[in-house]
Amino acid sequence: MGLDVEDAARQARDLARAGAEANGVCTSPVVRSVFDRETGVTHLVPIPCGSTRESKCKACAEKARRLRMHQCREGWHRDDEPDLPPAPTAAPDEDDDETEDDSPAPERVTRSTRRRPDVPDLPTQKMNSGTLGRTFTDPRTGRTFRPSMFLTLTLGSYGDIGRRRRADGTWESTGVPANPRTYDYRKAALDALMFSRVVDRFMQNLRRCAGYTVQYFAAVEPQKRLAPHLHAAIRGTIPRAIVKQVAAATYFAAWWPPCTDADVVYGEQTEPPVWHEESANYLDPHTGEVLPTWKEATSQLQDPAHVVRLGKQVDVKGLLGGTPDSDRAVRYLCKYLTKSISGTYAAGDDDSADTAARVAYDKHVDRLHAHVKVLPCGPDCANWLRYGVQPKSPTPGMKPGGCLSPAHDRENLGLGGRRVLVSRGWSGKTLTQHRADRAAVVRQALEAAGIEHDDADRLATTQETADGHARYVWREPEAGTYTYAAVIAASLQETLRRRGQYDAAKQVLGLAPPGSTGPVDNRSATAATPAAHAA
After folding, report:
1. What is the pLDDT, as a whole number, of residue 525?
2. What pTM was computed for the model?
């Protein structure tokens, strides 16, 4: 009998999850209990999990993706200067390839600001403070255009990639190295771990060479070979020759201690360094000697440990706002934001991928992850202990090859940070403000149609009773007071009710239903319109 009850409960959960996924409802809500002091009633409130990965929650991930699309559209083709939000109080980049400051040390370790001799010089341009870029006038019609750009940057090659023949006779990349033994996995791993740094350098250089304060909305995603690349919406236009010249001249040099396989001191089978509480240092487990500090290990460096360069493939397309190509580019830009790095192409491009191909691809992921897991992700990385060097800011509990940064996880393969990079002057709004704008549109439609909507602050902790105490008390629900199926069913019912209200409001107001988003073009960028080409 117990087994039947368990089966029924499992089926109820599965049905609830399926219904939630089919209707865009969070399948992993955080449930809270809200006690109303005035009425004595306790409410169970499911809060959406807010995940950005569809492997965890498809509904929340899709909602986050659409919010990013809204953010991208609002800032891309602006013709007025946005109000800039307050500048963040961030610490300076201490990993700079030009200077490095190891405070609180009294002396400053400086390195030459001279550019590397193996990279071309950057072009020079007189700067202005605007963010909009140039306008162009069609001599035939007199119409003024302000085109923008869609940019794709990649990393270089680490070895030949295999190909396979499609059913239609054409060839496609397998994403797997043709010869894994000669494929440079270490360089691929270090490039991935430092990719965000070289992207930052590129954008800094682009602003210096464009003549205006370039604004961008960029998404980081993997190519099929798992090397990260960048798609970016750029406001305004820059000559293609300048963009490619900047890409060729951009690099990031990591002035870090050596970290090759030959430099490993404390491997997997070796006793790890020991933390010494009084001196706040790590000691050799056998001799008791203090390991070299970060400053000591980097003070006499003659060459950087690694240099990241962008690949030669730079794709630049001109686009005009309000065109189908521009809308298609937005959807393509945000296409893979809901997927992990390693899972984007894990199942192949289609369901016909054979088992052998899937196994080969998984092995490729494993080989790359083996390097990403143990290589350092930055000066503060615990993995420096593996190479006999203390991290820049050592703390208790660090393990060699055991850094807790998500960059080392198999699903991220070096890209454990932000997948969306947005400049401060893109739209003049934070992501929270964009989210509030979308909610405000719904509320305004309901009010205009005369449909009563729920008060967003109806259970807020700021509401008080007559005696001045908080009316609502939020807390963890007691065990056994709810079931997953019941919570999901209630969430589904609430979502369908609100959706019905909004549809009714649009019908009353005579608003056309939103159009289909259509298929996503799998090209690396979109074709430019004739007017944009002319510009």
Report:
1. 36
2. 0.84
